[in-house]
Every structure is written in C-alpha cells, then in structure tokens.
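Researcher: Let's run the pair from yesterday's discussion. Sequence first, then tokens, for each.
Model: Starting with the first of the pair.
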Amino acid sequence: MDAVTTRRRRLLGCVVGTVLGAAILAGCAGEPKIAIPQGIPPGPGAPVPPIDIDAPGRTADQLRDWAADQTDALGISVTALEAYGYAAAVMAQSRPECGIGWTTLAGIASVESRHGTYRGSSVAPTGDVSPQIRGIPLDGGPGVAEIPDTDGGAMDGDPVHDRAMGPLQFIPETWKRWGVDANGDGVANPDNIDDAALTAARYLCARGGDLTSEEGWRRSLMAYNLSGEYLADVRDRAAAYSVGTRP
C-alpha cells in the first residue's frame, strides 16, 4: 500500500462489488431498512468520546462502552471498533486538520480483512490478529502489481515477493515507513489491529490532507488502493457504519 499502485488488489486478489442503494427498502419483516447516505466523504458515525490518548497500556480500552453499544448493530467486534475509534481520536488531536472518521477506517478494514476475521482469523483483546492474514504474492500476475521482496521474508513470510499483511493489508515496505505502536506494547505490529488502524489513519491523513473534503478523501483512498471500485466499496461500507447499520 503506497502512493503508487502498490496497494494492488482487493484482499488476497479478490474483487468485491457491493453497491448500497440510498432508498429505504422494506425488510423481510415489513420494517424499513436504514437508508444509506450517498456522497463523499462518508459520515463520521457515532462521536468518539474524549479519552486520554497518552494513558499507559492499551489506551483504546477506554472506548469499551462506546464500542459495546455498537458492536451488534455494526457486526464489528468491540476490540476492532475500539481500534478504529482510538485511531480517529489520536488523529483528531495530532492532526485536527485531517478530520478522518473512524468509519473510513472501518470501511477499509471491512474490505481488506473483514475486520481481522478473514478465513477464520480472530482479534484478541490485545488487538492481535491470529492466524496472521497474508495476501497473495505480488508477482505481477494478472491484475496484480509486481513487488519483489523487500524484507527477506521476515515480515510477510515470502522471500521472493512481497505480500500484504494484517487486518489493514500493508506491504512490508510501507509498514517500515509508517508503522506505529498503538496498543502500548512497544512494538509496531502489522498483525495488531490497533497498530494497523493508527498506521492507516496516519497514512491516509498524510496522503489526503483534509479528509472532510471530497477531494481529500478521494485522494487518500486512491493512494491506499489505486482503484475506483475499491474506493466505492469502502465508501459504501463506511456510509453504512455512519448510520449505525451493517453494509
């Protein structure tokens, strides 16, 4: 995931084409479904309550009640929601001009790894995702960027070609530059959803500038993955989360 086309594929080369409508539709039980707003950027969602972002340990734990109130409606684990909310809170204080919403991070993580649950992986209370999630080899095959190995296989397990890693699917080269510790264990780990969410937020803000503007949000997403379909998919999922429902 870099400013060039190193944010290749959908997760593991998959292509997902979900398009959510804006109309209110009748549900199976006759009750109207929540309308998904259109437009870019997607809404910011439930406001993140004030927290001490410099508290010791896993600071995201302060958002437990906020996350628990939404977990069932959104279909996102409490730990993952805490990670997205914490990342947005950190950026609100460190780069207030960016304005990134937790919903954008949730939309990306939904597309990339189903919030750390792809192929049976799960997210521990510490934020660690296991088994580790790895993408396909970036070997220049059809629809895939070619990125020769940059880490000797130390991070992604592939000594020949790079692979995307973790719940936010970073390639090793990008992680080396942007990776940050967010759960207080002293290690920047792409397989930890706290670390990955804050790293993604930092990257998006640096690439997009003002993410409350359509231009800035588009620019940040195209830097993350150079695909209009990807952008639309993330937008649709983030927009659903912004009104308290699942995509």
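Model: Moving on to the second of the pair.
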Amino acid sequence: MATVNLGRLRLIWRGEWAVSTAYVLDDVVRQGVSTYICTNAHTSTSSFTNDIANWDLMAIGSDGLDELADIGVWLDNAGGEGPAGPSSNALNERYGSMTIFNASNLNMRTDAGGGVQIITIPTTGEYFIKCAGAQGGGYQGGNGGIAWGTVDLTAGDVLYCRVGQRGLGGGQSTTSTTPLTEPDATNLVNDTTGANNIGGGGFGDGRGGNGGGPSTGNTDSGGGGTAVRLNTDGVGNRIIVAGGGGGGYLEGERFATGATSPPAGGGDGGGYYGGMAMKVSEGSGSRAGGGSQTAGGHTGSGGNTGTQTQGGNGPANDGGGGGGGYWGGSTATNTGGGGGSGYVGGMKSTNRGMSMGGNAGDGWIYIRRVG
C-alpha cells in the first residue's frame, strides 16, 4: 500500500529564498517581488540565478509600491563635501533602509570607491530625469544649472549617477585685514600657503576646478557637474548633464564692496553654455568663459581651460576655479571661474531642456518612470 504524506498535499511557504538551504518539491519562496515553486529537491547554491533550474515562476508580484512610477527617486550627495564624493558607507546609510533601494526593486548599489550611485532599471518604459549641478564655492559662487528630459530605458539598463558637490571656499586674503563676508566661516583663515585652495573643486561629473592663489588673495573652487551615464561608466556615455557653477573670487569680493566696483561672482552652470564669470575692477585679467557643447570656455589671461572631466583650475596668480559639466568652465586672473555647460543629447528630442543657474548648494538627480 502506498504511503501518503498528508503534509505534502499543500504548498509549503518557505519565505525568502536563502543560500545553502534544503528545499523539496512544492516548496514556495519569494525572490525579489515574485514567487517560485520548487520542482526538484535540492540544497540551494550561492545565488538564485545559479539555482533557477530547480524552480518554476509561480507569480510575478509587487511590493505594493512602484516608487519609480508613483513618486520617483531623489538622489543627493549624502553629505559629501568638496572634492571627495560620498563614501559607499555614507550612501548605504542614506538609502539602505529604504524599500526603493533593495535588491528586489531598484537594485541600487555604490561603487567601491564611493561617489557613484548605480541603479539597475527594473521595468522597461519611458523615464523622466532631471538634475542640477552644484554651486561654485564662496560668497558669490555661480549657481548650478538645471537639465531635464525623458528617455526610453529597458529593464536591466544601468544608470551611473554622479551628484555634483559645491566647491570649497578659500581663505581670507593674506594682504587684507578686512574681514570677508564669506559664509563658510571655517574657511576664513589667513592662508599664506594656499592650502585652502588645493583640491577644493567640488566632486561631480566632471569635477569643479580648484581655486587659484595664494599670492594676493585666496579664491574659491568650482562646483561639480551632475550627470547620468547609461550602461557603461565612461564620459562618452553621459546622457544628461547639468553644469556646475564657477567659484567666486574672494579678493574681488572684498574690492567689490564699494559702489563703483562690480561683483566678482563665478559664472552660472549651463545650459547649452556655461555662464561667463563677472569681472572685477581690481587687476587687468580678462573674463573667464563658460563651457560649451564642444570645448571648455574662453580662457582669460593667466587662466586654465576646462575639459570634459574638470573645470579649469584657478590661475596661480589668483582666480576662482571653473565649474564642472559636459565641458568645464575656464578661468582667468583676478576673477571668478566660468560655469560648466549642460547636455541633454541622450534624451528624447521631443521632451528635453536646460536652463542656466537655478540651483544653489549641492546638486541632485530626480528619476521617475512616466510611461
């Protein structure tokens, strides 16, 4: 007589699939947002992908909220400052407890070196992306630009996202005893070596240029550009970029307090073009230009030209750093840095745009599925 195991006359719910676990026929597990039924008794391996031959898809499920379609995803700099992007630990702390970034939904992760926020798209569709570049450093750092558009993405596509960070402010002029109206109070120091200007360009895609100096006055670094790269983490795979603002010119800000002196602000981030820096009356240097769609901005006397990976560094004889972007802003002596340009060439031509300036502080990225 056959023996009937009454306990196996129903499906057995085993919860989340787990590694190195013994499963038998008709066990049911959850993997991601879907459920699977066991077709062969076995002990699971190190990954569900390797184990899939022992399971049949039972139901394609949902965790009850498709954040990409309902509310979108907001990425920021997770507390990163200056040239160093946020660490992978900081990003994991920021997003790790959020349902949207678990392995079953958005598959978000960070690169080992920190700073790059990596998203695997879960659902084929049309996505809206909007991003803002970071402001340049200092009291009069240029604002970051804004870029937006829609793009068709396929499930499994990978987005490499870099959020621009504001450039660092420089120190007080070594030749001035007049206090500066610099909001970054921790940077208001007499700096005879220019240490406050070294490596101060804001992290991003590309990075803001360092402020120049220190012979007559310390200066501010450029803000980082914000961008999204598709499937390959290379400069040529950027689909949208918002330019960072150029760094201000502290010595110029001191001279600009009088009614007859113009301000010494960095150029705003782009936009098709990055903004040109404002000129100060002190010194004879020409103005620093913003990046374009094909090159860094106009390089003034003594300055450095922006590239596709970084805004120009401020000149050795004082000047703000250029903003990062699709192409970085350039620099000139005795003035702020030019803004970085934006880019929307990877977005659908029927729904895309850019604006110069518009964002103060650090950058951000917003992603939402719209179709």
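Researcher: Give me one sentence on the second I can quote.
Model: The CA atoms of residues 76 and 229 lie 16 Å apart.
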